[in-house]
């Protein structure tokens, strides 16, 4: 045992681990640079209603690094959260999407669109988070009713009273809230009933095999019924086939997002989806 422990302490000098520490430091540095040099972009993924009409878009962050190419959010969001870089990055996402809302509000064919923005817990925990969002809304002139903030269940580990105060402050101006990746985290129904949410998002992990796995179908159905009973809107994410959409529709689902309609695309391509 002692020998095993001794070996464990040597792990620090494991070259592969050292390499990963260096890689992490490099990534962190690159993230700082990326923010300074405008290497980030927002892609928009359409959200459809049952008739196939595009009712909104989820804003998804993209990082175009000059040498690394496109770095997926899965590879940098966690580090951005740990380092605190998610704070300036998150503000940039909000500013960019609010400016987009203003632009769309002036064009009749886009004026109905909502934009859903992912908010990390670290951002939301900022004492002045609600004030920051309201300031961006006001400065941009965007309609708060067209902005939806996506929170995740990990938020429920925080003080529910604090969450409520912030959400209520924003909801008073018309901002809406969705609970993202619903069912994958610590979903406490006790907390759920206390939050002024507008929408539940069925996580894509339940949608993927919904046609072949009866447990996934049961969970999706449970979420839809729960949403209906609580007067909430519901959207399924990761819908890739017409058969999945039809199945979800049969369970009572009302909104859909996924590759079946479109991947997340740049604003110009998103707007082109309305041509057909
Ligand atoms: P999310 O908010 O749950 O976003 C949905 C993810 O599913 C996106 O991945 C999207 O591209 C992907 N997706 C959409 N339709 C399909 C489909 O039909 N099939 C499959 N397999 N995947 C689909 P993406 O863009 O890589 O983003 C990953 C995560 O990164 C997001 O998950 C979100 O948690 C986070 N993220 C993205 N942008 C932001 C941001 O601006 N701020 C914060 N805090 N987090 C962000
Ligand atoms: Mg999301
Ligand atoms: Mg999600
Ligand atoms: Mg996710």
Descriptive overview:
The structure is a single chain. The chain has twelve helices and nine strands. The protein is an alpha/beta fold. The longest helix is centred in the N-terminal third of the chain and has 22 residues, at 15-36. α6 packs parallel to α7. The model is unreliable at 1-5 (pLDDT under 50). The relative contact order is 0.11. β5 (147-152), α7 and β6 (176-182) form a beta-alpha-beta unit. Bound molecules: ligand C2E and magnesium ion (3 copies). One magnesium ion binds next to loops. The site of ligand C2E has 23 residues, from β2, α3, α4 and β6. This is PAS domain S-box protein. It comes from Methylomonas rapida. Residues 24-276 form the EAL domain.
Instruction: Please count the helical segments.
Output: 12
Report low-confidence residues grouped into runs of 5 or more: 1-5
The SSE order reads HHEEEHHEHHEHEHEHHEHEH
Give the terminus-to-terminus CA distance. 68 Å
Q: What structural category characterises the helix and strand content?
A: alpha/beta
Tell me roughly what share of residues is in helical segments: 40-55%
Gross geometry? globular
Number of strands: 9
Biggest pleated-sheet summary: 8 strands, mixed, barrel
> Would you tell me the overall average pLDDT?
92
Named once each, the bound ligands are: ligand C2E, magnesium ion
- Measured by DSSP, the beta-strand proportion falls in 15-25%
The whole-angstrom Rg is 20 Å
Strand order of the largest sheet: 1-2-4-5-6-7-8-9
Protein name: PAS domain S-box protein
Domain EAL: 24-276
């Amino acid at each position: 045992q002692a020998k095993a422990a001794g070996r464990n302490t040597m792990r620090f000098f494991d070259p592969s681990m050292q390499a990963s520490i260096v890689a992490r430091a490099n990534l962190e540095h690159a993230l700082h640079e990326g923010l300074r040099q405008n290497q980030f972009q927002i892609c928009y993924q359409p959200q459809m209603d049952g008739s196939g009409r595009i009712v909104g878009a989820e804003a998804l962050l993209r990082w175009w690094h000059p040498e690394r190419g496109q770095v997926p959010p899965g590879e940098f969001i966690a580090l951005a959260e740990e380092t605190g870089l998610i704070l300036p990055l998150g503000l940039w996402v909000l500013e960019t999407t609010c400016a987009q809302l203003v632009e769309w509000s002036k064009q009749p064919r886009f004026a109905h669109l909502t934009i859903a923005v992912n908010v990390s817990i670290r951002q939301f925990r900022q004492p002045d988070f609600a004030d920051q969002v309201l300031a961006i809304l006001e400065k941009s002139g965007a309609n708060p009713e067209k902005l939806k903030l996506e929170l995740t269940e990990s938020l429920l580990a925080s003080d529910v009273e604090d969450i409520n105060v912030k959400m209520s402050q924003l909801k008073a101006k018309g901002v809406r809230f969705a609970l993202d990746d619903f069912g994958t985290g610590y979903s406490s129904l006790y907390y759920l009933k206390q939050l002024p949410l507008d929408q539940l998002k069925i996580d894509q992990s339940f949608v993927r095999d919904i046609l072949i796995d009866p447990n996934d179908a049961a969970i999706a159905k449970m979420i839809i019924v729960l949403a209906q009973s609580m007067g909430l809107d519901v959207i399924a994410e990761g819908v890739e086939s017409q058969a999945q959409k039809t199945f979800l529709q049969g369970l009572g689902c009302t909104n859909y997002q996924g590759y079946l309609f479109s991947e997340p695309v740049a604003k110009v391509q998103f707007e082109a989806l309305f041509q057909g």
